[in-house]
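Schema walk-through. Below, the input block comes first and the output block second. Nothing else is stored per chain. Lengths vary across the set, and this one has 416 residues.
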Amino acid sequence: MLNASGHAQVAPALPKIPDAKFNIAQYGAIGDGVATNTAAIQSAIDAATKAGGGIVEIPAGVYLSGPIHMASQINLRVDDGATLRMLPLDKYPGGTTNPENFIGGSGLHDVAISGSGTIDGQGIPWWPFARIKGANRPRMIALSSCDRVLIEKVRLTNSPMFHIAIGGKSSNVTVRGVMVRANRSDDPVAPGHNTDACDVSGRYVLIQDCDISVGDDNFTCGGNTSDVLITNCTYGYGHGVSIGSHTAGGVSNITVINCTFNNTEQGIRIKTDRDRGGFVHNLSYRNLSMTNVEFPILIYASYMATNREYRGLAKLTPAIAATYPRAEITGRTPMYRDITFSNITATVQPGNRAGLIWGLPESAVTNVLLQRVKITADRPFGIYEAQNVRLVDSQIITPDGTNKLSSTHAQIEITP
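--- output ---
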């Protein structure tokens, strides 16, 4: 496992879980798609915990359930032909007032969710509540401050909110072979809102061989995150592989390699603002293919800007960017440094720009390398408030020509 500098880094430790099996049917679960199985599933988890841990089996069938509380040394295995389905909105405990997350846990160790079955959030009726102040929605899988976590091979669909949310002081997290599906954010019938596929913050993280298409971030992490490898993933609809918006505590040593993006709103997105920033550095994006994306590369520090002219990123001009107000440097000032893009090809949706790197007047984006990057777009790549940006053997192709960039307050070097 390599870090963003190409040096070896520690791979996440995998959970160690006893082989003892606890089939939920033996605890009264009925997979008819009608019965509520919350108590039966929890009883199986509790029995496994009492025995020192084990595999809680969900066999073929459709099992409705309310919130489930995980425990240490438990593998919740959803077998082939099995669907673990969240209770519908009108029957889910807490409703939109105070719903618990569906599969939750905090302060645990050696935890797995596996199998080739499906976990279905029945989220479509929940999504409109994203626009209603005070309404709350549950996350499908929510783990906090856990160590040695594995989510493997399951199919996750239509969560009311985030599908996978792992945060706090979590460490040694592996998500591999997972498929996540939810409607895109501009679906004409039922747009998916805040249906992030994989939100993982912490230390020592591996995201591998995943197939993601959702209505928000395909991946994102926040502050206090380091040593992350994202590899061999396929991304469809969604907001791309993101960092932020809260980056206080810092983000470092992120590597994204050998991934594809098709119809994704953003390919790579790094976003934050002055009230939530931190030191984001040592990032490497390599061997990526992007087709029909809106923004192949988007790096900015004005995520919460309210002025309309600063929010229209696709049409942001040097003149507008130059008017962004300066502020005093504080402990929450965003800092972006040491970012490499290498061996990337991208075609951009009609009318959109090749990319945007936009720092702050008081904190320029610094040390960015685009090497063997080829992007074809209708609008130029914007580089504003940035220092030591180098294009090496790269082609940014627009109707204006090749490598005709849009820039202000930027130090840029272009070499063949």
